[in-house]
Each structure stands twice: as structure tokens, then as C-alpha cells.
Amino acid sequence: MEKINVYICVNDYKISTVGTISDGIISCCKDFLRIDYDINKKMLIKENTVSKIVINFEKCEMNVSLKDYDGFFINNIVLKSYSCDNNKIEIEYLIDEKLYNLLIMYKTCEKCLQND
User: Fold this and answer.
1) Can you give the pTM of this predicted structure?
2) Alpha carbon distance 37, 68 (integer Å)
3) Using alpha carbons only, how large is the chain's radius of gyration in Å?
4) Measured between alpha carbons, how far apart are the two ends of the chain, in Å?
5) Which whole-number Å values give the CA distances from 30 to 46, 92, 107, 116, in the listed order?
């Protein structure tokens, strides 16, 4: 497990924090939010105390579950573009006709940012 600085941006929402990368999985936490991105499976997992959202860019689907309920719902996404190289992942996708631009950048480091 290697420590990394992570920058994640989805449209106007931005996170810059310390995280880890292991076996192609980028993981980071900020406040009550945990974000994992599996580079090999092309899957983003965003989890907080209320919900868990899994976006599978290979299958073009989003799975949303609420922690207080047993059920979940699946929504299809449209993948517009996908790029992954040089510690930078750029994904453009549509959910219900709304365009999302996801950017994940990470850098291994000797001195990583302090995690708030």
C-alpha cells in the first residue's frame, strides 16, 4: 500500500486529500466521505453515513443504496469518454441527460498532504 496525494473533481465538487493506492485501487477519505476508484474494473465507489453509490463505467450503470433501507436502485449511464494514463483519470458521462466530468489525479509522495 502506497501513500498518495489525491485530487478528485466532479464538475464543481473538489476534494484534495491524502489517500492510498494498492493493487490498482485508489482510496481516500474526507470528513464522513470515503471514495474508492478501481482502475482495473473502472469502478467508482462513493460512500458516506447515509448512502453508497457505485458507478461501474464498464457496465455503464450506477447502483445507489441507502444504508437505512434494504433496497437499492440501478440507473443507466452513458459513457462519453474515458482516459486513464500517467496517474490521471478523466471520465465524461451522462446520468439522466446531465453531463458529469470526473477527474482523478494522484501522485505518490514521500511527504503527503495532511488528512484533515
Assistant:
1) 0.89
2) 24
3) 14
4) 20
5) 11, 23, 17, 7
